[in-house]
Amino acid sequence: QQAEKYEYQSDVARLRRIVVDSLYSNRDVFLRELISNANDAIEKLRLTALTEKTVWDGAAPLNITIKTEKDEDGKGGRIIITDTGIGMNPEELTKNLGTLARSGTSEFLAKAESEDATGSGNLIGAFGLGFYSSFLVADRVQVASRPPVSSKDSNPSQYVFSSSSDDATFEIYPDPRGNTLDFGTEVTLFLKDDAASYLDASGLTKLVNTHSSFSSAFPIYLWTEKEEQILDEDAEETTKEAVDDEEAAIEEVDESPEPPKMKTVTVGNWEHLNSQPPLWMRDPKEVSEEEYNLLYKATFKDLQEPLAHHHFTGDTGSGVSFRALIYVPSKLDETYFNDPLASAKDIRLLVKHVFITSDFGEHALPKWASWVKVIIDADDLPLNVSRETLQSGTFLKQVRQIVLKRIIQLFSRIAEEDEEKFAEIQKVYGTVFKLGASEDAKNKEKLAGLTRFTTNQRKDVSFDQYLENKKEGQKQIFYLADMGKAVEDLAQSVFVEKLHARGYEVLLMNEPLDEIVAQTLRTWKGVTFQDVAKSGLKFGDEDNEEDKQSLKQLKTEFTPLVEWLKQEVGDAVRDVVVSDRLVTSPCAVVADSMGFTANVQKLMSATNRAAGAQNDFMTEFMKKQKVLEINPRAPLIQGMLRRVDQLSEDKDEDAEAELKEVASILLDGALVRSGFEVPNSNLFLTRVDRVLRRSLGVSETAAADSTVKPAPPVDPKLPDVVTGGDEKMFFQVPDDIEFEMEEIDEDGNVIAHDEL
Ligand SMILES: Nc1ncnc2c1ncn2[C@@H]1O[C@H](COP(=O)(O)OP(=O)(O)OP(=O)(O)O)[C@@H](O)[C@H]1O
């Protein structure tokens, strides 16, 4: 039958090229990728057989075999990797090996192509190279495959997928050898000249042992051949005959026996490569760091080493004992924060070393922990337990709790024991801890304990460390939240100035989740979180009689200004008060305990805008729940008080109008200083303009010369596009530039013209 020829999907060609270009120095990975594909295929067969018995009778052996064959000339050769897995029919061969069905492939490829060759190694590793890594070592790959007998196909045929490394096409055809496989897949790599060293069996054994012996729970066999000396029976026979003949002729025989004749033969043997129990079954004390890392890289297809791991034995409440290995990858998936629904896909549940599921259904890990890589191997569950049975039972729920508890323990231990490592972990997982603290009600305290913040005094401060530094009498944890602002700017805020000047520590929160964490927790070890941009701030030492007296006195002194301001700015704020929270700034706008801080207001308008919602009455009401706090020690405020006092003595309308203007600028300035938006920025700037004129002695009413040149008449004609050949010219020569021109003849010589 004729072979069908197909074009590779364009992404495949790109991926193959990137793989080959960027991973040359890592080309050993091809074997681990193919073994892992073979393992997945057998796992799939076993899982399918749970519901469809014809697929596998439970008796036929499930395994992976590797065999090498040298060319006649002894130079090159082939590696053949065969599995007894689920196999592929011709359509599946085309789809699985000729297209990339993964989402985001194009984006990924564009990114990998833009990186330099070595950099994309890591990217590719994270993406998973899979089958295409074959082309690292092979210039031709042939995949023969045959699905098992099933209800869909009672007599499946074996087909071949064949492709060369530089072809843009691949071929699919019925295997001319017939059905050589009962079921499964056989991948034959025709090695490149420079990859012939992979034919060496001891090298392959080493490769499997380091990278893949734990990638499969099914036995991996390697065909090894060695030369042995055996008795050469043919030679013995001839000698014996010769001796008999001689005996007939000669009476006396030499008694000393002839040494037996030997010959050298090649003996082949399937060597079981992964006969050791998997690494997680061993005693952690006997497993090296390197072994843990190799297992991680092979199982989870990451070229980078994990940041940390945790290997433990446990028991679920329902009495199932298990061994588990938790890994913390060195970085989060690029889509982690963009994909709120993504659940953990790398939690591999095994029963007696055999893979059962990665799908925990409703017991999936919460979003904050969905990046974790886990191998969990249970002892006592029946092997043929179906996914549905598992999901409806308590086992997965218990496993989920245990895994979460252990991840937190692992991080907490690192935080205590290894500052440097924890700093590294913070860089990647800092936001994850905040996410956990706000979404995981059960573990929020522990996760919040892992969060770190910058303060006006230092960096990387935990809530516990904050409390160790609190001042006598202080009953609040002070924080200022303004999403997206630099911490340096937050430290300069009006709300922080007094606290800072007095030596109090303030947590500076500028990430979207920060304020949510503070509000979810409400208190830490019994101490309440206090937004310093809100009313209710207490230093804790206000009870001092002297301070109380002096504030009382200031309040009385400033009553006329406060009353006057209440009338002037009463539309924008609910109240005006003499404040004790400021040092150098003249005033600030503080949100009431009921009202919105600038940060919350920003969040609200962003969500409202996104939802297309109009500001409702309630939002408007909340927005107004602000208090203008004035600083009686600021010269500007003292000056205003003097003016208000003067006004009450002699009524001067001009002076009053001027003061009103100052008050309005003061309020707007306070709003800006406090992080709010000015309601009408045009009006605000016009007022500032007027005050500036006054200070420069310029007339306040004189208008600028506003005569302007009107635009020329309407001209619907479109500009000419000047083209030179097929290319567009991107500029036109302006009319007013004069060129000296020369006329040139056919041979390029200048023609002299007298008139020129
Ligand atoms: N030995 C095999 N037996 C059956 N199907 C296979 C085999 N090898 C590959 N496949 C099929 O081809 C698909 C593509 O394989 P490939 O290795 O490129 O990617 P993958 O295994 O899906 O992803 P990754 O390698 O990143 O885990 C697989 O998903 C699987 O369906």
Automatic annotation (TrEMBL):
Annotated binding of ATP, by residue: E33, N37, D83, M88, N96, S103, G104, T185, R387
NCBIfam families: PRK05218.1
Keyword Nucleotide-binding: yes
Pfam families (alphabetical): HATPase_c_3 (PF13589), HSP90 (PF00183)
Gene Ontology MF term list: ATP binding; ATP hydrolysis activity; ATP-dependent protein folding chaperone; unfolded protein binding
Keywords, in A-Z order: ATP-binding, Chaperone, Nucleotide-binding, Signal
Family statement: Belongs to the heat shock protein 90 family.
Cited PANTHER family: HEAT SHOCK PROTEIN 90 FAMILY MEMBER
The protein's name in its UniProt record: Cation-transporting ATPase
